[in-house]
TrEMBL record:
Pathway: Isoprenoid biosynthesis; isopentenyl diphosphate biosynthesis via DXP pathway; isopentenyl diphosphate from 1-deoxy-D-xylulose 5-phosphate: step 3/6. ATP binds at P91, V92, A93, A94, G95, L96, A97, G98, G99, S100, A101. Keywords: ATP-binding, Isoprene biosynthesis, Kinase, Nucleotide-binding, Transferase. NCBIfam families: ispE. This is 4-diphosphocytidyl-2-C-methyl-D-erythritol kinase. The active site is at K9, D133. Its EC number is 2.7.1.148. GO terms for biological process: isopentenyl diphosphate biosynthetic process, methylerythritol 4-phosphate pathway; terpenoid biosynthetic process. Catalyzes the phosphorylation of the position 2 hydroxy group of 4-diphosphocytidyl-2C-methyl-D-erythritol. It comes from Anaeroglobus geminatus F0357. Pfam families: GHMP_kinases_C (PF08544), GHMP_kinases_N (PF00288).
Length: 281
Protein backbone atom coordinates (compact mmCIF):
# COMPACT_ATOMS: atom_id res chain seq x y z
CA UNK A 1 0.00 0.00 0.00
CA UNK A 2 1.14 3.53 -0.83
CA UNK A 3 0.19 6.46 1.41
CA UNK A 4 0.34 10.06 0.25
CA UNK A 5 -0.28 13.20 2.30
CA UNK A 6 -2.44 15.73 0.45
CA UNK A 7 -1.64 19.15 1.92
CA UNK A 8 -4.07 22.04 1.63
CA UNK A 9 -3.09 25.57 0.64
CA UNK A 10 -3.84 29.18 1.35
CA UNK A 11 -3.37 32.13 -1.00
CA UNK A 12 -1.31 34.85 0.65
CA UNK A 13 -2.13 37.14 -2.27
CA UNK A 14 -4.30 36.68 -5.33
CA UNK A 15 -4.99 38.71 -8.45
CA UNK A 16 -7.31 37.70 -11.29
CA UNK A 17 -5.99 39.07 -14.56
CA UNK A 18 -8.83 38.18 -16.91
CA UNK A 19 -10.57 35.41 -18.78
CA UNK A 20 -8.81 33.50 -21.55
CA UNK A 21 -10.38 32.28 -24.81
CA UNK A 22 -10.37 28.70 -23.44
CA UNK A 23 -12.59 29.75 -20.52
CA UNK A 24 -9.89 29.63 -17.85
CA UNK A 25 -8.81 32.75 -15.98
CA UNK A 26 -5.27 34.08 -15.78
CA UNK A 27 -4.13 34.57 -12.19
CA UNK A 28 -1.17 35.95 -10.30
CA UNK A 29 -1.02 34.44 -6.84
CA UNK A 30 1.27 33.42 -4.01
CA UNK A 31 0.48 29.91 -2.82
CA UNK A 32 1.45 28.60 0.60
CA UNK A 33 1.04 24.99 1.74
CA UNK A 34 -0.38 24.32 5.21
CA UNK A 35 -0.29 21.21 7.36
CA UNK A 36 -4.07 20.75 7.16
CA UNK A 37 -4.21 17.64 4.96
CA UNK A 38 -6.08 14.63 3.65
CA UNK A 39 -4.50 11.19 3.55
CA UNK A 40 -4.73 9.20 0.31
CA UNK A 41 -4.08 5.43 0.36
CA UNK A 42 -3.53 3.47 -2.85
CA UNK A 43 -3.06 -0.26 -3.40
CA UNK A 44 -3.24 -2.66 -6.30
CA UNK A 45 -6.56 -4.41 -6.79
CA UNK A 46 -8.46 -6.60 -9.24
CA UNK A 47 -10.97 -3.81 -9.86
CA UNK A 48 -10.85 -0.04 -9.54
CA UNK A 49 -12.56 1.61 -6.58
CA UNK A 50 -12.54 5.07 -5.02
CA UNK A 51 -13.87 5.63 -1.52
CA UNK A 52 -13.84 8.60 0.83
CA UNK A 53 -14.48 9.15 4.53
CA UNK A 54 -16.61 12.19 3.63
CA UNK A 55 -20.08 11.02 2.60
CA UNK A 56 -20.97 14.30 0.87
CA UNK A 57 -18.10 13.95 -1.60
CA UNK A 58 -19.01 11.98 -4.76
CA UNK A 59 -16.60 9.21 -5.71
CA UNK A 60 -17.50 9.13 -9.40
CA UNK A 61 -15.86 10.68 -12.46
CA UNK A 62 -16.55 14.18 -11.12
CA UNK A 63 -13.98 13.58 -8.38
CA UNK A 64 -10.51 14.87 -9.30
CA UNK A 65 -8.91 11.83 -7.68
CA UNK A 66 -10.85 9.58 -10.08
CA UNK A 67 -9.81 11.76 -13.01
CA UNK A 68 -6.17 11.58 -11.88
CA UNK A 69 -6.33 7.78 -12.07
CA UNK A 70 -7.82 7.93 -15.58
CA UNK A 71 -5.19 10.46 -16.69
CA UNK A 72 -2.26 8.34 -15.52
CA UNK A 73 -3.69 4.98 -16.62
CA UNK A 74 -2.23 5.23 -20.18
CA UNK A 75 1.25 5.33 -18.62
CA UNK A 76 0.69 1.94 -16.96
CA UNK A 77 1.95 -0.91 -19.13
CA UNK A 78 -0.65 -3.45 -18.00
CA UNK A 79 -3.56 -1.13 -17.11
CA UNK A 80 -3.41 -2.00 -13.44
CA UNK A 81 -6.53 -1.42 -11.35
CA UNK A 82 -6.18 0.17 -7.92
CA UNK A 83 -8.14 0.78 -4.77
CA UNK A 84 -8.00 4.43 -3.62
CA UNK A 85 -9.27 5.68 -0.28
CA UNK A 86 -9.31 9.34 0.79
CA UNK A 87 -9.37 10.14 4.50
CA UNK A 88 -10.82 13.64 4.33
CA UNK A 89 -9.85 16.46 6.69
CA UNK A 90 -9.77 19.46 4.35
CA UNK A 91 -13.28 21.00 4.08
CA UNK A 92 -15.02 20.62 0.73
CA UNK A 93 -15.46 23.64 -1.61
CA UNK A 94 -13.58 25.80 0.88
CA UNK A 95 -10.86 27.50 -1.19
CA UNK A 96 -8.20 25.28 0.40
CA UNK A 97 -7.54 23.12 -2.70
CA UNK A 98 -8.75 19.92 -1.05
CA UNK A 99 -9.82 18.30 -4.31
CA UNK A 100 -6.67 19.44 -6.10
CA UNK A 101 -4.50 18.17 -3.24
CA UNK A 102 -6.17 14.74 -3.45
CA UNK A 103 -5.70 14.74 -7.22
CA UNK A 104 -2.01 15.55 -6.87
CA UNK A 105 -1.63 12.86 -4.20
CA UNK A 106 -3.14 10.25 -6.54
CA UNK A 107 -0.76 11.29 -9.34
CA UNK A 108 2.24 11.04 -6.99
CA UNK A 109 1.00 7.80 -5.44
CA UNK A 110 0.34 6.03 -8.73
CA UNK A 111 3.71 7.19 -9.99
CA UNK A 112 5.24 5.34 -7.04
CA UNK A 113 2.88 2.35 -7.02
CA UNK A 114 3.31 1.68 -10.75
CA UNK A 115 7.02 2.63 -10.70
CA UNK A 116 6.56 5.01 -13.62
CA UNK A 117 9.47 7.27 -12.59
CA UNK A 118 7.75 10.33 -14.05
CA UNK A 119 9.43 13.58 -12.91
CA UNK A 120 7.39 16.19 -11.05
CA UNK A 121 7.42 18.35 -14.18
CA UNK A 122 5.53 15.64 -16.07
CA UNK A 123 3.06 15.18 -13.21
CA UNK A 124 2.44 18.94 -13.13
CA UNK A 125 1.82 18.92 -16.87
CA UNK A 126 -0.74 16.12 -16.48
CA UNK A 127 -2.24 17.84 -13.45
CA UNK A 128 -2.70 21.10 -15.34
CA UNK A 129 -5.37 19.46 -17.49
CA UNK A 130 -7.26 18.38 -14.38
CA UNK A 131 -7.35 21.51 -12.23
CA UNK A 132 -5.67 24.89 -11.88
CA UNK A 133 -4.33 24.23 -8.35
CA UNK A 134 -3.08 20.71 -9.10
CA UNK A 135 0.39 21.68 -10.46
CA UNK A 136 1.17 23.57 -7.25
CA UNK A 137 -0.16 20.72 -5.08
CA UNK A 138 2.24 18.27 -6.73
CA UNK A 139 5.15 19.73 -4.77
CA UNK A 140 3.71 22.46 -2.54
CA UNK A 141 5.75 24.89 -0.47
CA UNK A 142 5.78 28.66 -1.09
CA UNK A 143 5.36 29.67 -4.73
CA UNK A 144 4.21 32.45 -6.99
CA UNK A 145 1.96 31.20 -9.76
CA UNK A 146 0.90 32.64 -13.09
CA UNK A 147 -1.04 31.41 -16.10
CA UNK A 148 -4.00 29.44 -14.74
CA UNK A 149 -1.79 28.41 -11.83
CA UNK A 150 0.66 26.18 -13.69
CA UNK A 151 3.53 28.67 -14.16
CA UNK A 152 5.29 28.23 -10.82
CA UNK A 153 8.20 30.18 -9.36
CA UNK A 154 9.51 28.89 -5.99
CA UNK A 155 9.86 31.51 -3.27
CA UNK A 156 11.76 31.39 -0.01
CA UNK A 157 10.01 28.98 2.34
CA UNK A 158 8.28 30.70 5.25
CA UNK A 159 8.92 29.71 8.88
CA UNK A 160 6.44 27.26 10.47
CA UNK A 161 4.10 29.95 11.81
CA UNK A 162 0.72 28.92 13.16
CA UNK A 163 -2.28 29.69 10.99
CA UNK A 164 -5.87 29.97 12.20
CA UNK A 165 -8.24 28.64 9.56
CA UNK A 166 -11.94 29.39 10.04
CA UNK A 167 -14.39 27.59 7.80
CA UNK A 168 -18.03 28.74 7.82
CA UNK A 169 -20.64 26.12 7.11
CA UNK A 170 -21.35 27.33 3.58
CA UNK A 171 -20.05 26.39 0.12
CA UNK A 172 -18.63 28.62 -2.59
CA UNK A 173 -18.07 27.00 -5.96
CA UNK A 174 -15.10 28.30 -7.92
CA UNK A 175 -16.97 28.72 -11.20
CA UNK A 176 -19.59 30.86 -9.49
CA UNK A 177 -16.88 33.03 -7.94
CA UNK A 178 -15.27 33.60 -11.34
CA UNK A 179 -18.67 34.53 -12.76
CA UNK A 180 -18.86 37.30 -10.16
CA UNK A 181 -15.47 38.56 -11.32
CA UNK A 182 -16.55 38.51 -14.97
CA UNK A 183 -19.54 40.73 -14.22
CA UNK A 184 -17.78 43.09 -11.82
CA UNK A 185 -15.54 46.10 -12.18
CA UNK A 186 -15.01 46.79 -8.47
CA UNK A 187 -12.30 44.30 -7.50
CA UNK A 188 -9.00 45.94 -6.58
CA UNK A 189 -5.66 44.43 -7.56
CA UNK A 190 -3.10 43.36 -4.96
CA UNK A 191 0.49 44.65 -5.03
CA UNK A 192 2.13 41.32 -5.81
CA UNK A 193 5.62 42.79 -5.83
CA UNK A 194 5.19 43.88 -2.22
CA UNK A 195 4.14 40.37 -1.21
CA UNK A 196 7.05 38.73 -3.03
CA UNK A 197 9.53 41.11 -1.41
CA UNK A 198 7.99 40.53 2.02
CA UNK A 199 8.25 36.76 1.62
CA UNK A 200 11.88 37.11 0.56
CA UNK A 201 12.55 39.17 3.71
CA UNK A 202 10.61 36.68 5.90
CA UNK A 203 9.02 39.73 7.54
CA UNK A 204 5.85 38.67 9.36
CA UNK A 205 4.28 42.13 9.66
CA UNK A 206 5.06 43.03 6.06
CA UNK A 207 3.58 39.78 4.79
CA UNK A 208 0.35 40.36 6.76
CA UNK A 209 0.14 43.93 5.46
CA UNK A 210 0.71 42.81 1.86
CA UNK A 211 -1.95 40.09 1.92
CA UNK A 212 -4.93 40.58 -0.37
CA UNK A 213 -7.39 38.68 -2.53
CA UNK A 214 -9.40 40.13 -5.42
CA UNK A 215 -12.12 37.55 -4.82
CA UNK A 216 -12.81 38.77 -1.29
CA UNK A 217 -14.76 41.94 -2.07
CA UNK A 218 -16.78 40.03 -4.68
CA UNK A 219 -17.72 37.12 -2.42
CA UNK A 220 -18.44 38.92 0.87
CA UNK A 221 -21.69 40.67 -0.23
CA UNK A 222 -23.09 37.28 -1.30
CA UNK A 223 -21.69 35.23 1.60
CA UNK A 224 -22.04 37.26 4.83
CA UNK A 225 -20.43 34.43 6.81
CA UNK A 226 -17.06 35.43 5.33
CA UNK A 227 -17.31 38.86 6.94
CA UNK A 228 -18.34 37.35 10.27
CA UNK A 229 -15.34 35.03 10.21
CA UNK A 230 -13.03 37.93 9.44
CA UNK A 231 -14.52 39.92 12.33
CA UNK A 232 -13.86 37.05 14.75
CA UNK A 233 -10.21 36.89 13.81
CA UNK A 234 -9.80 40.66 13.73
CA UNK A 235 -11.05 40.84 17.33
CA UNK A 236 -8.17 38.52 18.26
CA UNK A 237 -5.76 41.13 16.92
CA UNK A 238 -5.05 39.22 13.70
CA UNK A 239 -5.15 40.30 10.04
CA UNK A 240 -7.47 37.79 8.31
CA UNK A 241 -7.98 37.12 4.62
CA UNK A 242 -10.26 34.91 2.59
CA UNK A 243 -8.32 32.24 0.70
CA UNK A 244 -8.87 31.38 -2.96
CA UNK A 245 -12.49 31.73 -4.04
CA UNK A 246 -13.58 31.23 -0.43
CA UNK A 247 -15.38 30.98 1.83
CA UNK A 248 -12.60 29.95 4.23
CA UNK A 249 -10.81 32.72 6.11
CA UNK A 250 -7.32 32.42 7.57
CA UNK A 251 -4.92 34.50 9.61
CA UNK A 252 -1.22 34.09 10.28
CA UNK A 253 -0.50 33.97 14.01
CA UNK A 254 2.43 36.12 15.23
CA UNK A 255 5.41 33.93 16.23
CA UNK A 256 5.19 35.11 19.84
CA UNK A 257 1.54 34.02 20.19
CA UNK A 258 -0.11 30.59 20.56
CA UNK A 259 -2.54 29.68 17.80
CA UNK A 260 -4.11 26.88 19.81
CA UNK A 261 -5.01 29.25 22.64
CA UNK A 262 -6.67 31.58 20.16
CA UNK A 263 -8.58 28.69 18.59
CA UNK A 264 -9.73 27.53 22.01
CA UNK A 265 -11.11 31.01 22.74
CA UNK A 266 -13.18 30.88 19.55
CA UNK A 267 -14.46 27.39 20.30
CA UNK A 268 -15.42 28.33 23.85
CA UNK A 269 -17.39 31.25 22.47
CA UNK A 270 -19.57 28.68 20.68
CA UNK A 271 -18.97 30.01 17.20
CA UNK A 272 -20.74 28.07 14.46
CA UNK A 273 -17.54 27.52 12.49
CA UNK A 274 -14.81 24.94 12.17
CA UNK A 275 -11.59 26.36 13.63
CA UNK A 276 -8.33 24.65 12.71
CA UNK A 277 -4.85 25.46 13.91
CA UNK A 278 -2.23 24.42 11.42
CA UNK A 279 1.33 25.37 10.59
CA UNK A 280 2.85 26.52 7.35
CA UNK A 281 4.49 23.63 5.54
Amino acid sequence: MIEEIAYGKINLAMNILGRRPDGYHEVDTVYQSVDLHDTVCLEKSDTFSLTCSCGELPCDESNLAYRAYKALLPFSEDLQAVRIHIEKRIPVAAGLAGGSADCAAVLRGLNRLWRLALPDEALRRIGRSLGADVPFCISGGTMRAGGIGEILVPLKKLPPWDVLIVHPHVLVHTDEAYDLFTHSCTAHAVDMGEMVNSVAAQDFESICSAMGNMFESLIMPHVPAVGRCKDMLTRLGLMPLMTGSGPTVFALVPPEKDGEEMATALREAGRNVDVIVTALR
